[in-house]
Structure formats: C-alpha cells, structure tokens
Design goal:
It contains 13 helices and no strands. It has 268 residues and is an all-alpha fold.
Length: 268
C-alpha cells in the first residue's frame, strides 16, 4: 500500500475521502437528529437528474448535480413544512423522476458512453483537483456556518417549539440544513455513490451518538469514525482490487456490528 501513495490519483482519493468524511460527520449528525434520513435519500437519488443535465449540456458534474440537489432541497423543505401528510408521496415522486430524467438525458447525449456504476457506487479514484477544491470549499463553508450558528441549529434540531419562542427562524434553519445536506450528498456520491451515500451519512453518526452527550461531540466523533472507515475501505479496495465505495460501506457496517455486540455485552 505504501508504494501506491506515490500515485497522484491515490493521493487525491485519500484527501477526498477525508474531506467528505468530515463533512459527512457534521451534516450526517444534523440529518440524524433532525430525522431527515429519508429526505436525504430522496435528495441523493433526485440529484441523478442533475448529473444527467450536466452531461447533456456539457457542464461540470458537480455543478449540475449541486444545482439540482439544492433545488430538490428547497422543494422538499417546502413540502415537509407545508404538506407533511403527503411528504412520502411527493418525495417518492421526486426520487423516481430525478433518476429517470438523469438516465434519459444521458441516453440522449451524442457520443457519450457513461459508466452508470461510477455514479451508483462511487468513483473516488477518479477524483480530480477541481473536485478537491469543491469538496474543500464545501467543508470550510459547512464548518463556518455550523460554528457561527451552532446555538440556533442546536435549538432547531432538538426543540423547534422552544426555538420559535426564542425568535429563531425555524423554517430558515430547517431549509439551511437540507441545503447543506444536499451539497454534502453530492460530494459523497463521488466517494460511495448515490446508492450507498445514506450509509456513509448515518452509520458513523449512529456510533458517535451512543458515545457522546452533545451534538458538538457527535459531529467530531462522526467525522473521526467516517475518516477511519473511509481510509480502511480504500486500503481494502487496493489490496483486494474491489470497489472502493462498497468497501468503505462494508467496513462501516462491520464496525457498527462489532460496536453493537460490545455494547450489548457491556449492558449484561
């Protein structure tokens, strides 16, 4: 594995994995405590339409997917805040339409042959320098927003009624969390693909939640665990020549399984 570090694409993959892991730890914690896992899954699959749009119009993949994902986040925020009773129906519809639109646009793109597996299950070894700049910018913006408005986000996440009494704009912060989730989902797709992205956003968070008593500590531990799982998955994928995205998620799932076993043994 040491000799592989001399290759630029491996270096880029490791940096990308760490950047996305930290972002996923922060945003994944917010997704879990706000019970947005299903919403984030809807955004992930809907964003495939943005990938199709980017390919069809010759735009950067991250740009097309991000714009589509953010638009989806705004729509989902509006639906969940105003039509919660029909939420499942609308999100399921967006999920299906986004995926279908992406596939059709890719099929209509002349002279373009795409490996759908790279978007479904990730292609971290194909990360470019531009991708790293995008990931780094998103991570910095996420850290700044969460740090500066931590108390407001904390109040909205755990007790929205109390937040309203304090004069906090609950709808704004709820939408902000969804938008940050959408952008994080887009960069995470590059690492593990849209099929597995929810596992990356929730498994480390679940473990961290059991080991922490504050949202702040949960975010830190989630980022650490996610980074460990990502690097371990990359090492396994290199050693055994298997898909990196699937390896990362399997390492995460195995770690969760071991954690649950030890947790149950401690309770006895």
């Amino acid at each position: 594995m040491i000799e592989a570090l001399s290759y630029e694409f491996v270096q880029n993959a490791i940096i990308a994995g760490l950047l996305v892991s930290i972002a996923s730890g922060i945003i994944g914690s917010l997704i879990v405590v706000n019970r947005m896992v299903f919403l984030a899954g809807g955004i992930a699959h809907t964003s495939y339409g943005g990938i199709g749009l980017a390919i069809y119009f010759g735009l950067p993949i991250f740009l097309g997917a991000s714009l589509f994902a953010v638009l989806s986040a705004f729509i989902i925020a509006f639906i969940t805040l105003n039509h919660r009773g029909r939420m499942d129906t609308f999100i399921g519809l967006m999920w299906a339409v986004g995926m279908a639109l992406g596939v059709v646009l890719i099929d209509l793109t002349d002279g373009y042959s795409v490996d759908l597996m790279s978007y479904l299950f990730g292609s971290i070894l194909a990360v470019s320098h531009n991708d790293l700049y995008y990931m780094g910018t998103l991570l910095i913006a996420t850290i700044l927003i969460v740090t500066l408005r931590y108390r407001d986000i904390l109040a909205v996440s755990y007790d929205s009624d109390y937040a309203k009494l304090r004069g906090i704009n609950v709808k704004f912060f709820y939408t902000l969390i969804l938008v940050l989730s959408a952008l994080t989902v887009v960069v995470a797709i590059k690492v593990v693909g849209l099929i597995l992205v929810i596992a990356l956003l929730t498994i480390p968070v679940y473990i961290a939640e059991k080991l922490s008593n504050t949202l702040y500590m949960m975010m830190i531990l989630s980022g650490i665990f996610s980074s460990i799982f990502t690097i371990s998955g990359l090492i396994l994928s290199y050693l055994y020549n298997i898909s990196s995205g699937a390896s990362i998620i399997l390492v995460s799932a195995l770690s969760l399984f071991v954690f649950l076993i030890f947790s149950n043994l401690r309770l006895r």
